[in-house]
Design a protein that fits this description.
The complex is a heterodimer of chains A (112) and B (226).
Chain A lengths: L19 H22 L2 H5 L3 H20 L7 H33 L1
Helix pairs in contact in A: 1-3
Chain B lengths: L4 H4 L13 H27 L13 E2 L6 E2 L5 H26 L11 H6 L2 H28 L8 H34 L6 H27 L2
Antiparallel strand pairs in B: 1-2
Helix pairs in contact in B: 2-6, 2-7, 3-5, 3-7, 5-6, 6-7
Chain lengths: 112, 226
């Protein structure tokens, strides 16, 4: 059997999907990033540093993007699918960040 | 004009005016709405983070000043790390299942090797995905049970309320995914999934991967960031 991964015979797939070999590499990369995240959690000096939270957020975002791009094929699929996902995701992120800013401020005012 | 039986039962394609399969458009719209649902749950968790009046607390021990009772930090990072790894690997198994179904359209070699047969077995990969999904749920049941035994319930404090709501909703989504994939596995066992069924597997796979990416966010925001 050829180690290729064909798309469907329909216009949803503008490009070929990743190969099985790429899927294995993606799984390995995800495992390594997860291991790094857990390692960072157990490093007291790193936890105490101001880089801890941004580092974890970057690693988490990298995993998120890798899964969405390769496993969910968004890198290869039609751009409408990309818009259907990234549009609501962007709204959700903006809402989340706005709520955090708003309620953190309210909390600070209440404490004052 | 009368239609023949073959015409009547011909497979229908669900293409929209955009030329895209309406089923895939539908699942992406659903996933988009789910993003907002989980963003609201994660927002709630983050807003309430660090505002607990009583313990147990997620990352530090807490002593009740009235009774002197001490509660240790409640989150079990090693166990959750393993369950996270299991869920990530279930996503790998899922893409392998989809690839196996899609590649059935390609001509098979006369004598496939062991690994070629493994890679081409959608039943094996669907079974592995279901098994790993069920394992993740087992870890979650263990975690919830141990939390309750250690004094953290959904009514105990803000952490308990927001944590059980967020992870409980995610667990419900995993449960739905396991049932969905189990149904696909049953169909595969009964009649074999064909390339024409690939879009159904693709839709289930998209849902499953979404459940995985939500957990990627939860694992970092809830479990790792103190």
């Amino acid at each position: 059997m050829a180690h290729e991964h064909a798309g469907h015979d329909n216009p949803d797939h503008t490009h070929e999907h990743p190969t099985w070999k790429q899927y294995r590499w993606v799984a390995l990369i995800l495992t390594v990033i997860t291991a790094l995240e857990v390692w960072a959690y157990y490093m007291p000096t790193l936890v105490a540093s101001p880089f801890f939270v941004p580092l974890l957020l970057i690693m988490s975002a990298a995993k998120f993007i890798i899964v969405v791009a390769f496993y969910m094929h968004l890198k290869y699929d039609h751009r409408l699918f990309r818009a259907l996902f990234t549009g609501p995701l962007a709204i959700a992120m903006v809402t989340l960040i706005s709520l955090l800013f708003l309620l953190a401020k309210t909390g600070a005012e209440m404490r004052a | 004009m009368a239609h023949s039986a073959a015409e009547t039962h011909a497979p229908t394609h669900h293409y929209t005016t955009t030329g895209l399969d309406s089923r895939k458009v539908g699942i992406w719209m659903f996933i988009g709405s789910e993003c907002m649902l989980f963003a609201s749950l994660i927002s709630t968790y983050l807003i309430y983070k660090g505002k607990n009046v009583v313990g147990p607390l997620p990352h530090e021990a807490w002593t009740n000043p009235q009774t002197g009772e001490t509660f240790k930090a409640i989150l079990n990072i090693p166990v959750t790390s393993i369950s996270t790894f299991v869920l990530l690997m279930s996503s790998f198994a899922m893409v392998m299942a989809l690839a196996a179904v899609e590649n059935r359209r390609r001509p098979k070699p006369a004598n496939p090797g062991f690994w070629q047969r493994v890679e081409g077995s959608s039943r094996l990969w669907l079974f592995m995905t279901c098994l790993m999904g069920a394992t993740f749920l087992g870890f979650q049941a263990f975690e919830f049970t141990s939390f309750v035994h250690e004094g953290l319930t959904i009514r105990r404090n803000l952490f308990g309320s927001s944590f059980f709501t967020l992870t409980g909703f995610h667990g419900a989504h995993v449960t739905a995914g396991v049932i969905w994939l189990g149904t696909l596995l049953a169909i595969d066992m009964k009649r074999g999934l064909q390339p024409k069924d690939a879009v159904w597997v693709d839709i289930a796979a998209l849902y499953w991967h979404f459940v995985d990416v939500v957990w990627i966010a939860i694992f970092t925001l809830v479990y790792l960031i103190r």
